[in-house]
Design a protein that fits this description.
By secondary structure, the protein is an all-alpha fold. The N and C termini lie far apart (about 55 Å). The protein has a domain of about 25 residues.
Length: about 55
């Protein structure tokens, strides 16, 4: 169905770009955490959330 909308050529080009986009998305996510308040973002990660509890 998707191939009918955008065409077979562009679908195959898009499939080739998926790993590259995933890698750059991961790098971008890490950059956002690095350049912002990392504690604010990492408070939502379940494993890391318990390490920084203050009483």
């Amino acid at each position: 169905m998707l191939a009918k909308l955008i065409g077979q050529k562009y679908l195959s080009i898009g499939k080739a770009w998926v790993p590259t986009l995933a890698a750059w998305g991961g790098v971008g996510g890490i950059a956002v955490i690095h350049f912002t308040d990392w504690r604010l973002i990492l408070d939502y990660v379940p494993y890391i959330n318990g390490k920084f509890k203050t009483d």
